[in-house]
Amino acid sequence: MPRAALLVVDVQNDFCPGGALPVPGGDSVIPGLNMATSAFVRAGLPVFFTRDWHPPNHCSFKAQGGTWPPHCVQGTTGAAFHPSLDLPPGSTVISKGDRKDAEAYSGFQGTDLAARLRRLGVTSVYVGGLTAEYCVRTTTEDALREGLRVAVLSDCIKGLEIHPGDTSAAIEEMKRAGASLTTSRAVIKVIVGTQQ
Ligand code: VGL
Ligand code: ZN
Predict the structure, then answer these.
(1) Which domains does the chain show, CATH number per domain?
(2) CB 3.0 to 4.6 Å from 159: which of 27, 123, 132, 195, for a disulfide?
(3) Is 113 in the pocket of ligand 1 (CB under 6 A)?
(4) Cα 2 to the chain's mean position, in Å?
(5) 10 close to ligand 1 (CB < 6 Angstrom)
(6) Per-residue pLDDT for the chain (196 aa), expressed as one digit of tens each?
(7) What's the pTM?
(8) Is there an atom of ligand 1 within 6 Å of 53 CB?
């Protein structure tokens, strides 16, 4: 049995309805992620929460010539994890995109996530969160590049859908890169089944 970890990507207020860069229905990923988190914690398996954590003048913002409205600015309510998301004690927060001049969609980019997973002996990761096309996809692809087995929780991801079909295209790209698709229900069953 490979040692598993759960990666919860960017479930922050700004990516949820009412936020600065909202994913339609983005908060709908939360119940499944909370149930998965609880199963991992009970099994003694690690859970990581990434967050987009930008300085006010980040290069990805339109005012600096980037693509996006200002979002997830360090220390603001918009950058906070959604209040319904459970972060149990002992979970690890990974901040990314925190340097003005570097975009970082992936939770692995410019962070110690890979080193932390290696140190814990993690060989398999389950990924869910926001946004399907950007941070979930790139985190998944980087995890595969790190040599990890990756399963995406299809019921726990949601996309911005700037163009209709972007989310399903992202899912196809993740599959082509080597990720498998599963559901929170299925992974909870597997994780609970591994407990002694
Ligand atoms: C994201 C756009 C800009 C994401 C972050 O979390 O997917 N998308 N910054
Ligand atoms: Zn961002």
Answers:
(1) 4-194 (3.40.50.850)
(2) 132
(3) no
(4) 21
(5) yes
(6) 569 999 999 999 999 999 999 999 999 999 999 999 999 999 999 999 999 999 999 999 999 999 999 999 999 999 999 999 999 998 999 999 999 999 999 999 999 999 999 999 999 999 999 999 999 999 999 999 999 999 999 999 999 999 999 999 999 999 999 999 999 999 999 998 876 4
(7) 0.97
(8) no
10 is catalytic: yes
> For residue 5, what is the enclosing H or E element?
strand 4-9
Q: Which ligand gives the minimal distance to the CA of 58? A: 2
- Give the tokens for residue 70: 């200002």
Active site residue 59: no
Environment of ion ligand 2 (residues, CB < 5 A) = 52
Q: What are phi and psi of 159, to 5 degrees?
A: -110, 160
Q: What is the 3-state secondary structure (H, E, C) of 63-90?
A: HHCCCECCCCECCCCCCCECCCCCCCCC
